[in-house]
Amino acid sequence: MSQGPQQHGDGDDRHSTLINNSNAVRAVTSAVEGTLGPKGLDVMLVGSRGEVVITNDGVTILDKMDVSHPAARLLIQVARAQQEKIGDGTTTATVLAGALVQEGVAQIVRGVPASKVVEGMRQGIEMALRFLSDRVRVIEGLDDPLLERTAFVAGRERRDVVGLVMEAAAKAGIDQLRNPSYSLADSVIALEKAENEVFEGILLRQKPLLAREQQVYSDAKVLVLQDALEPDNLDEELLTTEAGFARYMDLRSVFASDLERLSELSVKLILLEKGIHPDAEQFCLDHGIMVVPRVARVDLRRVCDMTGAVPVRRTALHKDPEQLRSVLGFTPQAEYDESLERVRLQGGNSGERVVSIIIGASTSEVVGEAARIACDAASALQAAVVGGVLPGGGTSELSVSYELERHREVQKGMEAFGIEAVSTALRRPMSQILLNAGYNPLEKMEEVRAAQIRLGTDSMGVDCDTGVIINYEDRGIVDPAPVKLHGLRAAGEVAAAVLRIHHVIKMREPGGTAGE
To answer: Is-contact 460 469, C-beta < 8 A?
Structure first.
């Protein structure tokens, strides 16, 4: 896209910061736009020590890029916001943000006040979001054919990975997928030399103490301790006195009684946020209790959700047996998988349905990319279940861009130039996809638009293999609606922030004084 005619003299000085920021944004956008679409290629990221990552995942590229320009960093925030909120569509959101900045700069350099352009862009984006929302196709259930196609497109047409994601979604259930606090993508686990598998339960990343091949427990009671399994603390200075030593021995005795109580309650699995005392370690070994220390709090929370356990501090061990029994969870089976070097906890009926998607490959580089693909497919599937789908490949955005053009023609005031910038930017995703496929974007987009008008549908697009105009919805080329809606909104926010910057000033170091 053109940045429009640039002024000279004072105009160059007035817009120098804006143009500099625009160039930085353009440099970041160019790093990911070549990966867009079915014919998009990969990017090789090389680290300072020679480490290599090959991927076409937008958020991975942007997250690992060495970027120092402040405006470029703002653009990267679009990808991060998209990834955190939706989990997919980071490349499209970045390309949209770059196009909005580029078209906004073109209008400002022509003489349109930046405030008018930004306000017009805000209006244009709100209209575009409304138009897109009106076009959403609702997913009826997990057997809706558009749902699998959504995962297939987001999963880069990897049938093996998409099959795992669909199986995991079926095990989790549609109610769980619609739970805002649940993320199917978080269930993806990349393990080198493992076999692909969907496991109904949790796979812990930590090893148990004294892991043995035959550590398998059925109908196991689970204790989750957000603490260390050790006696209550006593000030070391008190140990120098006779009374203090007596108190220390009392605490050791109480701790021994607490451990015996756990054995009497038939606890077979103890998960700890911290470490374990040697006496407790030996007791658990003697009584056949599996102990997994230093489990991350997020994993402890997942275990509690699945098993029904209540996380407690070690002082809760002093409670009477009935009170202690009420905080225990349950799992039909707990075992140490020696081949994966992980602890498997099978899901039961006492808590939430939890699944784990195990992605395996021969090397760490391959398994890492496969896991990223699985995460994209899982995020897209869940977003589609929650918010429906729209025709992919930039077809919906192209249709909406022409609607905005009609509104721009009747818009009064200079805000119309901002609406025009949004309209033009919305054509960028399809334009880039066609460019990556080796076609003339202008020619093909005109053919697509003519077909959309003639057939009265926004789902007409280009077959990137043959160049023929086809119905994307009929072919199952769809994207989750939340991906498009959130991506456009986030792109508009960052573009507005960049366009409003008229000067960049370096801050002094903390503790320094003005004038240094």
So the answer is: yes
Q: Which tokens sit at 130?
A: 């409304």
**DSSP, res 233:** P
In order of 279, 384, 506, 507, the CA distances from 514 in angstroms are 60, 53, 12, 10
**Residue 376, Cβ neighbours under 10 Å: how many?**
28
Whether 50 and 124 share a structural domain: yes
Q: 82-119 burial, b for 16+ CB within 10 Å, e for fewer?
A: bbebbbbbbbbbbbbbbbbbbbbbbbbbeebebebbbb
Same domain for 81 and 18: yes
Cα distance between residue 443 and residue 438, in whole Å? 12
| Cα Rg of the chain, angstroms | 29
Residue range of the domain that includes 162: 140-196+360-387
Q: H/E element holding 375?
A: helix 364-387
Same domain, 262 and 127: no
d(C-alpha 251, C-alpha 258), whole Å: 10
- With respect to residue 331, please indicate whether it lies within any of the assigned structural domains: yes
Question: Are residues 468 and 432 part of one domain?
Answer: yes
Q: How many CA atoms lie within 13 A of 76 on its CB side?
A: 19
Closest CA relative to residue 357, chosen from 340, 336, 374, 382: 374
pLDDT in tens, 153-194: 888 888 999 999 999 999 989 998 998 888 899 889 988 878
Question: Are 377 and 396 part of one and the same domain?
Answer: no
Q: What share of the chain is helix, strand, coil (3-state, %, to 5)?
A: 55, 15, 30
Task: Please give the average per-residue pLDDT across 416-430, as a whole number.
Answer: 94
Percent residues over pLDDT 70 in the chain? 92
Q: Give the span between the Cα atoms of 81 and 94, in whole angstroms.
A: 11
Q: What is the CATH number of the domain that holds 246?
A: 3.50.7.10
Paired sense of beta strands 267-272 and 216-225, if any: parallel
Q: What distance in Å separates the CA atoms of residue 514 and residue 445, rounded to the nearest whole number? A: 55
* pTM score, whole prediction: 0.77
